[in-house]
Amino acid sequence: MALHVLDLIGIFVFGITGALVGVRKQLDVFGIQVLALVTGLGGGFIRDVLIGATPPAALKDWRYLVVPIVAGLVTFFLHPGIERLERLVNIFDAAGLGLFCVTGALKAMAYGLSPLSAALLGTISGIGGGVIRDLLSGRVPVVLRREIYATPAFLGATIVVVAGALEYDAIWVSYVAVLTCFTIRLLAIRRGWNAPLPRTH
Amino acid sequence: MALHVLDLIGIFVFGITGALVGVRKQLDVFGIQVLALVTGLGGGFIRDVLIGATPPAALKDWRYLVVPIVAGLVTFFLHPGIERLERLVNIFDAAGLGLFCVTGALKAMAYGLSPLSAALLGTISGIGGGVIRDLLSGRVPVVLRREIYATPAFLGATIVVVAGALEYDAIWVSYVAVLTCFTIRLLAIRRGWNAPLPRTH
Amino acid sequence: MALHVLDLIGIFVFGITGALVGVRKQLDVFGIQVLALVTGLGGGFIRDVLIGATPPAALKDWRYLVVPIVAGLVTFFLHPGIERLERLVNIFDAAGLGLFCVTGALKAMAYGLSPLSAALLGTISGIGGGVIRDLLSGRVPVVLRREIYATPAFLGATIVVVAGALEYDAIWVSYVAVLTCFTIRLLAIRRGWNAPLPRTH
User: Fold this and answer.
1) Which of B43, B56, B58, B13 is CA-nearest to residue B124?
2) In this structure, is the dihedral angle defined by the CA atoms of residues B53, B58, B62 and B64, taken in order, positive or negative?
3) Do residues B144 and A26 touch, judged by C-beta distance below 8 A?
4) A192 Cβ partners below 8 Å, 6+ apart?
5) Under a CB-based contact definition with an 8 Å cutoff, are residues A34 and A65 in contact?
6) Which of A5, A42, B75, C14 has CB atoms 3.0–4.6 Å from C96's, for a disulfide?
7) CA of B57 vs chain A CAs: smallest distance (Å)
8) What's the pLDDT score for residue B96?
9) Number of domains in chain B
């Protein structure tokens, strides 16, 4: 499965999270589409602008536009009851985080960035869409909640970056990296894992 | 009337909306200028960065900087009473939306983007300045209010994109597109038009 | 002392402000690192993307990544008591503002932008990191508080731009510009300097 397929799946699941937040905010169908689009495409836009790959992939290939629109429409018609919305947002968001941190790191390496920079860019790609979604809809940005969020994205990106630095590019490395990020993020939510807090006095 | 004149008028009217919001928030004269600048130039910056036209037009041509500064100063000295501010914001914002969705789509086509991408980029150009203005000033972003907002921008952009795809580039098409977006947006506010809401249960 | 050293110091002090805000919000150690990174690197990312210098310096040179991480860790372990946090944020933020408005303007001139555009880009570089920090952490963006903020940045940038236009590039001009911005900003806070407000009636 090629890089752009993972990218499209990431756009789809992030699009769903945007639309679910829109449903929760009781936006109308167009507002929900806007949130699905910016959440699905935002991380990739930031990634492509930063590495100088403009216009971004999503503006050169119509499938990148159709996917979040479909995600928005599916969510609009088939969303669950209000009480289950937030849990679904978290699950799909974790999937998008895993997919985008990997595709972002791979694309950054393909554009010649150093390993450390590629890992950072993968992390930015992963967290970008969710941050834009939360800023626009007036939620506390997910990276700033007291939850493990950027760290699993950095871990997932690091896995593919290390494999790339060793010139080992088997596709299963990408799958492992996506799953690692996704699993750690979900476990962190379920178990309420906490990182150390600053001391106060 | 050339593309860049429409662009400058768009910057002027969006600059006015930024300054009016600043007046409403009781910012000082410099804060009002900052809001006029970011609102006037924000949509074009996003457009130019996404299509790779950097530095953006506004950083290459001094008129693009003078226009929002004048808009801010005029508004600072001549703004109406508080009670009429919000209505004026809406009217000027609708004009900027119409102008930018058209100039954004035209510029995207000139840079070789596909019709669908050009329509999306026009929409992003149109809504960008207002979103930045609302985020900075702590208002609910205009695209996420339960009002028709992104849709007229997409319609206006689509008109010039379809005409462009048919290689029909008479200037009146642009005027019609601007007016279509502007009129639909204003009617949507006045009449309280609503798009379908998600079901809740 | 070369341009990139001033840049790195700017990243360090802005990184500290981001981390201090994170401590104040009681974020965990990873959330504090995220805020340190986006605040330290945000202004430079915006600058480099706008002038087309992609990938940004911070993604090409590992020192640009290490500096804000160190700033975040130092702040996490050594931050002062809660009651002194806000004052420290203001002081380090004023230092970052002075450093970035100067390095931003110098880099913009090196990329061939006109004097007015270079001054504006320096201002944007200076205020960018703080605005991102405040948006993410739910504070009123510093440019929109009723305080002198963008103006000293514009002054500092103008000093190096005027010197550059006169082809006088002695390094002490940059130091004077940094100090001018820093001093005016701090005096504005201490003395509560106000710019004129819009009339209301």
Assistant:
1) B43
2) positive
3) no
4) none
5) no
6) C14
7) 16
8) 96
9) 1
- The pLDDT value recorded for residue A131 is 93
Pair of tokens at residue A105: 């790191």
Answer whether B151 sits within 8 Å of A65, measured CB to CB. Answer: no
Residue A187 domain-assigned?
yes
Per the CB < 8 A criterion, the answer to whether A2 and A88 are in contact is: no
Q: Is residue C73 part of a domain?
A: yes
Q: Name the minimum distance, in Å, from the CA of C141 to any CA of chain B.
A: 6
Instruction: Give the pair of three-digit tokens for residue C198.
Output: 């819009």
Each residue's pLDDT tens digit, A40-74: 999 999 999 999 998 898 888 888 889 999 999 99
Give B-chain residues touching C109 at CB under 8 angstroms.
none
B82 pLDDT above the threshold of 90: no
State the angle between helix axes of A115-136 and B115-136 in degrees (0 to 180), rounded to the nearest 10.
70
Residue B196 within any structural domain of the chain = no
CA–CA–CA angle B95, B97, B102 (5° rounding): 105
Q: In chain C, what residues touch B22 (CB-CB under 8 Å)?
A: 144, 198
Tokens of B159: 């008109």
Q: Flag whether C197 is in a domain.
A: no
What totals of helices (H) and strands (E) does chain B contain, helices first?
Answer: 8, 0
Cβ contacts of residue C75 below 8 Å, gap of 6+?
C15, C16, C19, C20, C23, C32, C36
Instruction: Report the pLDDT value the prediction gives residue B61, as an integer from 0 to 100.
Output: 85
| Amino acid letter for position B18 | G
Q: Give residue B17's domain range.
A: 3-191
Is B137 an 8 Å CB contact of chain C?
A: yes
**How many Å is the maximal CA-CA distance in chain A?**
55
